[in-house]
Design brief:
The complex is a heterodimer. By secondary structure, chain A is mainly α. Helix content of chain A is 73%, strand content 0%. Chain A has helices at 2-36, 56-63, 65-98, 104-116, 120-133, 139-164, 167-175, 180-209, 212-216, 226-231, 243-265. In chain A, helix 3 (65-98) packs parallel to helix 6 and helix 7 runs antiparallel to helix 8 (180-209). The two termini of chain A are 37 Å apart. In chain B, strand 16 and strand 17 (317-324) form a beta hairpin. Chain B is elongated. The chains are: A mainly alpha, B alpha+beta. At the A-B interface, helix 7 and helix 8 of A face strand 6, helix 2 and helix 4 of B. Chain A: This is Sugar ABC transporter permease. Chain A: The chain crosses the membrane at residues 12-33, 75-94, 106-127, 139-162, 183-206, 243-264. Chain A: It is a multi-pass membrane protein. Chain A: Belongs to the binding-protein-dependent transport system permease family.
């Protein structure tokens, strides 16, 4: 029974490790959630579970136009940027994975370069460019840089997925009478779907969380996103800290991400291509 | 159904390598033609050019008399079975087989009926609603065939369709493919690297090497009358024995004794530029235990003695492996063949012979045995270019032909 003993022990060890990791990751989130339900008076009492529950903080943030506008901006900008980046990324990744065109290495190299370039050093030039082009403090003014900086990620993730799809499938589709477009739409795209959804999630999170561009390239509520709006929160008076409201807002903005991930995660099933070719 | 004509078809790549060189081939309507050769010989490239998956660099491809060089695969009306099967994993068996019909915009009822027919022929009816992931290798292979036959194309192209199956299933599927082709009577081009498949399946076999066609003919003709060293070594299992032979006046000096020469060969070898060294080729079944040869046939051959290394009794006959002293035959073709089966650099200095003797032979391992071989069936090759010197007007006549 030695073997099963070790497996039981191993199970416990792994279980413990898992719990540690989950706790480590979730405690700050729970702490934020807990703070958002506390009243101003008990905010600093150090209790993990609030003694006095209140929804005041949530009422406060939704009562101000500041937060609601920012939430709308965030959702709109992130969704548009994600959609455009995924569509462009799919096309580019397909070309990178399948075709041998002149300048392919350069394209891949440059996109890698963009991904690694410190974004903070681009903020000042972008600021100047956007101001002279009239893009400053507009939705496109944020959408464009988001697309630029998430495209390398999209191309990389997607080309890895496309490379997994056996090329023979495309040849077979062509032999079966499909045009290139039909082959892509009816055979390749359904198989690349998990990659597309994974990429969409990653790009959406990137756009949703961005603070640097959002604070540098906006100046009013017209296009300010939630992370920036949070930093502009003020208390009722200058002696009051808006901790509770910030926490409530932080909880609210994690909800779309969770919904987005849950919605797309179901479509990320592995093994879609199994059975296509003899492995 | 259609005939396919390849007229000086070549394929060269931008980096200058020539994958296929001036292939001339006329495939008649309903014919089953096999392209065979070691890996990298250009057989798959040739097939892909017929399919339209690769561009033709020069030459002309005609299907049904029409030039199709510049037509997309979908406009050539030919179906292809891939080595990897290439089934669409997101579709059921039924959808896989219906896919070409749906692209051809047939109506629903016709599609249903055609899929059902094809499924019946290939015994796939109970599997129609499964996904490829839930099928065995043999079943997947049949679905791939089903997808090809369902739309009754002008021709089938098959790219090593059986090489992913295990040995037993492969033999079984071989007969399925053969029967299906006869039943449908569709022109078929079949690529394989397995000479057994080539011998058993095809009406005609095309042997390729380094992008060039070596010989085209019915399997038996290639076996009996190989045009060159490469064809002789490639066709046949176990393969032909090759020995070094030195030309001397009226005979050849070899490790299995002196081989007398007939008038025609003597004349040819007397020429100024004739080779002084030859390669002697003998098929395993043209050896016999000297004790079992009757007087009448004995005169048609010659005898030698050699130590027996290994005896493999197959029941119907015995494979006997011997070592004879003397130089091993060497030629570029032989090295290439050895490399293809992964036996290059193996075998040492002495020459090894494989012989196939009657089951009645009492040959035993370790003894010295007298063996006889048939001089009328041997082949002689020029090592410099591989040409079969015993071939006269396409027929091999052995060493004694006058």
């Amino acid at each position: 029974m030695a073997a099963s003993d070790t497996t039981v022990a191993a199970k416990w060890r792994w279980g413990l490790l898992d719990v540690v990791v989950v706790v480590f990751a979730l405690v700050p989130v729970l702490w934020i959630a807990s703070l958002s339900f506390k009243t101003t008076g008990t905010l600093t009492d150090g209790n993990f579970v609030p003694r006095e529950w209140t929804l005041d903080n949530y009422r406060t943030i939704f009562s101000t136009n500041q937060f609601v506008r920012a939430l709308g901006n965030s959702i709109g900008i992130a969704l548009i940027a994600t959609a455009v980046a995924v569509v462009l990324g799919t096309m580019a990744a397909y070309a990178v994975a399948r075709l041998d065109f002149p300048g392919k290495k350069a394209l891949v190299g440059v996109s890698l370069l963009i991904a690694m370039f410190p974004q903070v050093s681009l903020v000042s030039p972008l600021f100047e460019i956007e101001r002279s082009l009239g893009l400053f403090d507009t939705w496109p003014g944020l959408i464009l840089p988001y697309i630029t900086f998430s495209l390398p990620l999209a191309i990389y993730t997607l080309s890895a997925f496309f490379k997994q799809i056996p090329w023979d499938l495309e040849k077979a589709a062509k032999m079966d009478g499909a045009t290139s477009g039909q082959a892509f739409r009816r055979v390749i795209a359904p198989l690349a779907a998990p990659g597309v959804f994974t990429t969409a999630i990653l790009v959406f999170i990137f756009c949703w969380n961005d603070f640097l561009f959002a604070i540098s390239l906006t100046s009013t509520e017209r296009s300010r996103t939630v992370p920036v709006a949070l930093s502009f929160f003020t208390g009722e008076s200058q002696f009051e800290d808006p901790t509770g409201a910030i926490c409530a807002a932080a909880v609210v903005i994690t909800i779309p991400i969770i919904l987005f991930v849950l919605f797309f995660q179901r479509r990320i099933v592995s093994g879609l291509t199994s059975g296509a070719v003899k492995g | 159904m259609a005939d396919i004509v390849l007229d000086k078809v070549s394929k060269s790549f931008p980096d200058g390598t020539v994958a296929v060189r001036d292939v001339d081939l006329e495939i008649a309507d309903g014919e089953f033609v096999i392209l065979v050769g070691p890996s990298g010989c250009g057989k798959s490239t040739t097939l892909n050019m017929i399919a339209g998956l690769e561009d033709i660099s020069s030459g002309e491809l005609r299907i049904d008399g029409e030039r199709v060089n510049d037509r997309a695969p979908r406009d050539r009306d030919i179906a292809m079975v891939f080595q990897s099967y290439a089934l669409y994993p997101n579709m059921t068996v039924r959808e896989n087989m219906a896919f070409p019909l749906r692209l051809a915009k047939l109506d629903r009822a016709t599609i249903e009926q055609k899929v059902a027919e094809a499924a019946k022929v290939l015994e796939l009816t109970p599997l129609l609603d499964r996904k490829p992931a839930n099928l065995s290798g043999g079943q997947r292979q049949r679905v791939a065939m089903g997808r090809a036959i369902v739309r009754s194309p002008k021709a089938f192209l098959m790219d090593e369709p059986l090489s992913n199956l295990d040995a037993k299933l492969r033999v079984q599927m071989r007969t399925v493919v053969s029967r299906l082709q006869k039943q449908l009577g569709t022109t078929t081009v079949y690529v394989t690297h397995d000479q057994t498949e080539a011998m058993t399946l095809g009406d005609r076999v095309v042997i390729m090497r380094g992008g060039a066609v070596q010989q085209i003919g019915p399997p038996q003709e290639l076996y009996d009358h190989p045009a060159n060293l490469f064809v002789a070594g490639f066709i046949g299992s176990p393969s032909m024995n090759f020995l070094h032979a030195a030309v001397e006046e009226e005979r050849l000096r070899t490790a299995v004794g002196d081989v007398p020469l007939g008038d025609r060969l003597r004349r040819e070898l007397a020429a100024e530029d004739a080779p002084r060294e030859l390669i002697l080729g003998i098929r395993p079944e043209h050896f016999e235990d000297a004790g079992l040869v009757d007087e009448q046939t004995r005169g048609r051959g010659t005898e030698f003695e050699a130590p027996v290394e290994i005896v493999e009794s197959m029941g119907s006959d015995k494979y006997v492996y011997l070592t004879v002293s003397g130089e091993r035959a060497s030629a570029a073709e032989l090295e290439e063949l050895a490399a293809d089966v992964g036996a290059d650099g193996f075998g040492g200095g002495a020459a090894n012979l494989v012989t196939r003797l009657s089951a009645e032979s009492t040959v035993a391992e370790g003894e010295n045995r007298r063996l006889w071989f048939n001089l009328e069936k041997i082949h002689l090759f020029d090592p410099s270019n591989g040409r079969n010197l015993t071939l006269h007007e396409g027929r091999a006549a052995g060493a004694l032909a006058s």
